[in-house]
Specification:
Transcription Regulator spoIIAA; five-stranded mixed beta sheet
């Protein structure tokens, strides 16, 4: 495969990722809701990282990252989530269904205990408190 073909594939993968950010008021300020749709991999993980960084700005109430529409995530996407969970000021809660690709990745990598994850936005929101999510 030539470099032009590889560039074209990477560009297509990056374009297929859709990220939507919304802010909702809560008791302690605002919560950023970031919904992701599409595959997360090397080609577009930085886009997710950027959304998490900008979503965290001013979101004192935390970040809910909805990954229910992510059918595939590689280790690059996992790294983005781990860094965000560790480094972002506001608490981070991930929404992913039981048996989903993201949930399996968290379990297989042995990091499910470091990334609070929930079945629904409501559960994630309820878990984010002044001291962060309780998984």
């Amino acid at each position: 495969m030539g470099s032009d073909e590889r560039e074209s594939e990477l560009r297509a993968a990056a374009e297929s990722l859709r990220i939507q950010t919304d802010r909702r008021p809560v008791e302690d300020g605002e919560v950023a809701f970031i919904s992701v749709e599409g595959e997360v991999d090397l080609a577009n993980a930085e886009e997710l990282a950027g959304a998490l960084r900008s979503g965290g700005d001013g979101a004192g109430g935390g970040i809910v990252l909805d990954l229910r529409e992510v059918p595939f995530m590689d280790s690059t996407g996992l790294k983005v989530i781990l860094i965000a969970s560790r480094d972002l000021g506001p608490p981070l809660a991930v929404v992913c269904g039981t048996g989903s690709a993201v949930r399996r990745l968290l379990d297989l990598a042995g990091v499910a205990d470091r990334v609070p994850s929930f079945e629904s936005e409501e559960e994630a929101l309820a878990a984010i408190g002044p001291t962060g999510p309780a998984a």
